[in-house]
Amino acid sequence: MLYHGWRDEVKELLTLISKPHFKSLLRTHDSVAKRDFEPALPPLPDDAMEEDEESVKIVSLVKTKEPLGATIKKDKSTGAIVVARIMRGGSADKSGLIHEGDELKEVNGVSLEHRKPKEILPLLACSEGAVKFKIIPGSTKEEMTSCVTKVFVRALFDYDPTEDPTVPCKDAAVAFKRGDVLQIVGTDDDTWWQARRLGDGSGRAGLVPSKQLHERRVALQRPRALFKLQNIKPPGDSFSGLRRSFRLGRKSSRARKPAQLRRWSSETHGAVCPRTYIEVVPYHKEPKDRQRLIVLVGPSGVGVNELKRRLVISEPDRYGVSVPYTTRKKRRQESEGLDYHFVSVQAFEELILNHRFVEYGQYRGNYYGSNLDSVQRVMAEGKVCLLDVHPSKIKHVYTSEFKPYVVFVKPPMIEELRLTRRRAKFVCDEDGMQVRMFSEEDFEEMLDQAEMLDSQYGHLFDKVIVNGDVAATFRELKADVEKLDEPEVQWVPAAWMRSAPTKAWRSCSSLTGWI
């Protein structure tokens, strides 16, 4: 009822609060404040009172579309169904009412005696609204402390739980791809860790193979690359990782160098280290920060030089290459500081002693090398420096100073290699006098070298690009490199950002059910 003496503002307010949608909002507010939205829990069963009140508890959890977030197993000695693991972020974890080691006696009034874990899942599926558990708390649970970590890692291998016959419970596992960033939230178990994959929008953790488990698997399944490496003899000439020309020359930008320059250092033939995870931390590029160093690696003939050349030509003010050093005499058409830095043997060897080379070697009695000073000159100009070295030499620039972004250029399958390179030619001597087509042996060697590089140095690669069609590969590479200038977070090795070693991840039971 409105009164004539009321002001217009009061009348308008009364009209607003009398509307149905506003009344619904007020009722919702009152319900949330009183927590009336929670389902009414059923009364405690009479038979529970007969047992010791401290030995049995009744837990009722609201059922949602997601699993409750716990794994169960059958105790071999007693035959009891016990909670093997609580998944971080799941309903059971958030409730704080169910713990690892608790014995499940009943689910929704149905006894679990003499039942198998897989027989319990249908009982949960039939539940509506809430799931009621009758539990005997684990005797040692209060003394147990859970190892909760906030470690982020980059996965260095693909994992698909549907193809893993050893995973305790496929529904509880997390699939991921090489390069995905995972947050490790639990390492209590030395076989299966708990982790969340960044970007999937779910706060619930799942199971991933632990570092120890994956290393054991790799050790049991010795890669073919290891056997190939063991059968290759180190080169006889005095090279130290030199495998291709150090210059981005005008005549041979598409060319591959002689066989001697394609031989790998004996450093390549070490033991293959299993790729697991590498700890990473978020990095936000500030406007004052220098551009990250771009390191391109790949087997000889795959097209690294061509991709590097195209990047420089596309934006010469943005991209630059480090000018190599050599002790060779300058030729008439060459320019100091443009083609090479020409130095004496004594000066070159002094630089070697002072550890100023990323990579160096000898060819026909002359030294050639990529110098750190040359890399820093390009970066000091505000350009993106493109560096092409053997992966074994990346360690010289794998620091917070350079923050290298390592791109592995990989050849396509041999059928596509034959198709895309069938008319390609490469220079097979330094003077560019001899030119020949790719042979079938060249293709096989390229694929073998790619497999060896990936097996040994895959943990250093931030990006893997398959170079089939060079034009498409160039566009993909350029787009990927340009993302490094965007404000989005980048994940870099934790070792770059701190000197202190990370606390070792602590790593207990095999799981059989997921609820």
TrEMBL record:
- The record places domain SH3 at 148-218
Identify the residues that the record assigns to the Guanylate kinase-like domain, covering every copy. Answer: 291-482
InterPro entries reported for this sequence: GK/Ca_channel_bsu (IPR008145), Guanylate_kin-like_dom (IPR008144), Guanylate_kinase_CS (IPR020590), L27_C (IPR014775), L27_dom (IPR004172), L27_dom_sf (IPR036892), MAGUK (IPR050716), P-loop_NTPase (IPR027417)
Boundaries of every L27 domain copy: 1-40
UniProt keyword list: SH3 domain
Ranges for domain PDZ come to 58-139
Name the family: Belongs to the MAGUK family.
Q: What is this protein called?
A: Membrane protein, palmitoylated 7b (MAGUK p55 subfamily member 7)
Tell me the organism's taxonomic lineage: Eukaryota, Metazoa, Chordata, Craniata, Vertebrata
